[in-house]
Amino acid sequence: MGSLNTLFPGQPPRFEPHITITTNIMIDLDDPNKTRDDVDRILSASAVALSSLPKNHDKLVRLGRVNSQRKFFKKLYFQVDSDPNLVSFARIIRELFVILPHDIEEENIKQNPQLYTKDSNGNTVKRKLSKKRTKSQSPPAQEAKQFDTSGLQYLAAQKAADWSLNEFDPHLSLVYSNIHPIDNALWRTIKTRISDYLDIDNVDSDSFNSGVSGLGWDGGVLKLVLCEGDVNDWIVLGSVDVH
């Protein structure tokens, strides 16, 4: 990755090699204690989910051909085989920590509008409870209405299954860049460097696949990352080793 970065103009950002499992995980960032609890809970549950997958694969992550797109975050990357276990893991994480929390929050807004307000940008946010209350202040908001989430859980499972089949696109990014298109001369240099480094030919060919290259791994580290602002400003909120 370091060698490839030097081929692109403008000093592309450096980042750790990784496979993105999902985005938009819901955590509480307003309260540091709640943030820590959310991060620990999500990482622990994710590690358990990963360990529960069938042990019928040699490598959970198997790299395929090198490819490029117009998108900044998919400028240059290895495709990753959609291994059934990897897809199942992504589906579980998407359901439990993205879709279901979002759907429950939306339903709570409908059932308990008194618990929410609008921020300066017009977004719906939870009201912050004051730690101190005087006699002159208004009384506490009425008790929250409880509601059954079983129907939401069923729908979340369906949505996650559809997402895992139609939208989940595992890949290992090599370079982030705005350059487009990659001209033929640069593309030849890229292929040469990757081929020389890995001692494998035709890295951008459909014939290049995990069965031939043997590139990939099983286990590693799960990380929860706050991806806001510049890539260099991304913050690792927590991590857990998985084997």
Automatic annotation (TrEMBL):
This is 2',3'-cyclic-nucleotide 3'-phosphodiesterase. Involved in the metabolism of ADP-ribose 1',2'-cyclic phosphate which is produced as a consequence of tRNA splicing. Residues 111-146 are annotated as: Disordered. SUPFAM superfamilies: LigT-like. InterPro entries: Cyclic-nucl_3Pdiesterase, Cyclic_Pdiesterase. One of its GO terms (biological process) is cyclic nucleotide metabolic process. Residues 125-135 have a biased composition (Basic residues). It comes from the Eukaryota. Belongs to the 2H phosphoesterase superfamily. CPD1 family. GO terms for molecular function: 2',3'-cyclic-nucleotide 3'-phosphodiesterase activity. Signal peptide: none annotated. Its EC number is 3.1.4.37. Residues 111-124 have a biased composition (Polar residues).
